[in-house]
Structure formats: structure tokens, C-alpha cells
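Sequence dictates fold. Next comes a concrete instance:
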Amino acid sequence: MSRAELDRNPHDVARMFDGVARRYDLTNTALSGGMDRYWRIQTRRALAPQPGERVLDLAAGTAVSTVELAKDGAWCVAADFSLGMLRAGAHRDVPKAAADAMHLPFADGAFDAVTISFGLRNVADPVAGLRELARVTRPGGRLVVCEFSTPTWAPFRALYQGAVLGHVLPAVARTLSSNPDAYLYLAESIRDWPDQPALARRIAEAGWERVAWRNLTVGAVALHRAVRPV
């Protein structure tokens, strides 16, 4: 299934993630060379959840990222539009909710902080999704977006966008994933995603302030931070 076909019908994206849920965590760890744990830790540190705060982890998948966020004592809920992902993470002891990023089932200002990791690419309208995240965040609340981005060092960028996304990722997915074809879409979505400054502009367009970013892994991943206006 092509990226264009998935864009026309977002429900297909949910079904795609249902199809990869069973071995999703294992495949991600293999594809990232174990860096996925480091990215989760850095996301938690950037969001800086505090005891007693309410935190939304959107596109949480199997909730492995939510467990990481909860280590600092905040109340953290895992939300995802793939029921298969949530079922695959049923053994993780955090609250879970089925949720469409475009129509979140939460009240205005319900959360002190919100985050989305490697999921904004899969939202049909990312700016609308960012606005919806702002709606459910209290004034002065925090946003962190952890997402694949554009490597800053040209030789690595060429290697990453060519060999890694074009050959290594599909080969590993064929070996480990319960739905290898889905990773062709994921590789395409990474290539098509805006670079760090362009994503920062989208976040600001959605109404967030004090937008900044920090590169991880030579820019292959970036953390974007922002604050909801008071």
C-alpha cells in the first residue's frame, strides 16, 4: 500500500499498526540499534514530568514510552488509535485510552504536559493534531515532539536516507516484523517528513510558543519543545 493510499484513508494507517503490533517493540529496537531506549530517556528529560502532574503520551503504541515517562512520578496515560498496539501493551501498568489525534477524548486543559513520539508523521493533518494537543494542555503546559528528522552531517544523511531507509530497514523488517510491508510506508514517511526548522514552524503555526529543538543521533531524530501560551 502506498503512502498516498494511506493518506486518503487514515483508518488504513491504524490497521497497519495493528498488523505490526505483535513484534513492534522488538523490531524497533533492532532497527534503531538499541537507540530507542536512549530516545525515550531523552524525551522524558526534555518533558521533565513532575510528581502529581498529568501527562498525555499520544501515539504511545504499546505504552513502553509511557512507562518511561511515569518514572518521575507523574500520572501518565498512553493514548493510541491502534487498538492492536494497546492490546500488545496490555501488560504494562499504565492507564490506556483509544484516541484519534485529531479528536482527542479529553477535556480542555486536562494535562500539564503532552508528548508524541514517532507518531506525528502518521497524523492526517499534523498542524491540526498539534492544535488538538494544545487544546488538552493547560495554559503554560509543555509539549515535546520526538520524531525522525534530517541528519545534519551530509555524509551520514546520504547514507541514512539511501542505504538505511532503502535497504537496511526493509531487510530487518522482513526478518523480525509481523507485517514487513508496513515498514516500506514508514521509511517513505520518514523521507517525506519536514526538517527541523520546518517542523518548528508547524508547531508555532498550531499556536505553541517558545519552540526550540535539539538533535539526537546526528539529527536522525530531533526533540522539539514548546509551551502553550498563558
Remarks:
- The first strand starts at residue 54 and ends at 58.
- DSSP finds ten helices and seven strands in the chain.
- Residues 154-176 form the longest helix (23 residues).
- Residues 1-6 have pLDDT under 50 and may be disordered.
